[in-house]
Design goal:
Number of domains: 1
Oligomer: single chain
Structural class: mainly alpha
Shape: globular
Distance between the termini: 73 Å
Number of helices: 14
Strand order of the largest sheet: 1-2
Radius of gyration: 31 Å
Number of strands: 2
Order of helices and strands: HHHHHHHHHHHHEEHH
Length: 333
């Protein structure tokens, strides 16, 4: 069973490496298409952007752009939708997005996709996948793009709950609307708790995976999931956030399984063949613990082509005298 699983893993990895130039754009296209489809479903007000050809065109643009530019493109599409409903509210949202984009461009780097992944995973009820995977591959600074993704999601939730302004609003009404949006974001306990729990999860997993223990990555995933459940439960009891506990627990368990599958394909270690090596140089004496990777070599299938032999050659051979007859004639002579 284990050999079969390792063989499947080896075949999948070899396929991804062999067709990397094709697989990466396809994945980016799927992610970009999902992003723009979610934006259209959540705050769709501009009809021409909600058409299927427009979504395909935006997804193609996102396929061949870096992650940070894809985030900028998604923000621009969101602003167009909000502007179609309320130009005044779009100004406030643009200010928030500009601040967030500065943080993303400055600190997130290659983790720009996290900002887009968090709102989508929130809609799928499994946003906890993000901190679990970041805890495996990133430093605690990765909480910045994760926090930006949480803020973007909660901001869209607040905007969808507020009655959008029209052009006949007075100055006082506009100020009241802006104050209402800001107050809701600042007082959003669910957003603050989510960012805090995500940060603790990433930090704890980062510290655990630095330990020289067996099954360290699997342990860090399990501990991260426990921290997630306990963090939200404690916050719900203390701050009365009206959290859906059942959805959170099942979402965390599902996210943990996804993180385990991700870790298996990223790095599979064989702890049954651990080696401990000691050596020295001019300055230090080293104690090294070496854990081999599970790399199963999949044999290549070779197809041997058998060419058709010309039938005239066989006819020539059959027409000539047999070797036994030649020998018998020589003996008689």
């Amino acid at each position: 069973m284990i050999v079969t699983i390792l063989e499947v893993r080896a075949r999948v990895l070899r396929f991804l490496q062999k067709f990397q130039l094709v697989v990466e754009p396809v994945i980016k296209f799927i992610v970009a298409f999902a992003v723009f489809r979610c934006i259209n479903n959540a705050i769709g007000h501009q009809t021409f952007l909600m058409s299927f050809p427009a979504e395909l065109l935006l997804a193609l643009l996102g396929t061949f752009t870096p992650s940070v530019l894809l985030v900028l493109l998604a923000a621009a599409v969101s602003l167009v939708h909000i502007y179609a409903a309320s130009p005044l509210l779009a100004i406030l949202v643009a200010l928030f997005m500009t601040i967030l984009y500065c943080f993303i461009a400055r600190f997130s780097g290659k983790y720009g996709y996290v900002v887009l992944a968090v709102p989508i995973l929130f809609l799928l009820k499994i946003p906890y996948v993000v901190p679990l995977i970041l805890g495996l591959v990133a430093t605690p600074m990765a909480v910045i793009p994760a926090a930006c993704g949480v803020i973007v999601y909660r901001m869209f939730v607040v905007i969808s709950d507020i009655a959008l302004a029209d052009e006949t609003m007075g100055i006082e009404d506009i100020l009241e609307m802006y104050i209402d949006v800001i107050d809701r974001l600042v007082a959003d306990k669910q957003m603050i708790i989510t960012i805090a729990v995500f940060f603790v999860m990433i930090l704890v997993m980062y510290l655990i995976r630095k330990l020289a223990i067996e099954y360290v990555f699997e342990i860090s995933i399990a501990v991260g999931a426990i921290v997630c459940i306990l963090g939200f439960l404690i916050a719900d009891l203390v701050l009365q956030t009206e959290l859906n506990i059942i959805s959170m627990v099942f979402g965390t368990v599902g996210s943990m399984l996804i993180a385990l599958v991700f870790q298996f394909f990223r790095l599979a270690l064989d702890y049954t063949a651990v080696e401990r090596v000691q050596f020295e140089d001019d300055d230090y004496y080293y104690y090294v613990k070496a854990v081999p990777k599970m790399n199963l070599a999949v044999p290549e299938r070779s197809v041997k082509q058998i060419s058709k032999v010309d039938e005239s050659e066989y006819e020539d051979v059959e027409a000539g005298p047999a070797e036994d007859e030649l020998y018998s004639e020589e003996e008689e002579q």
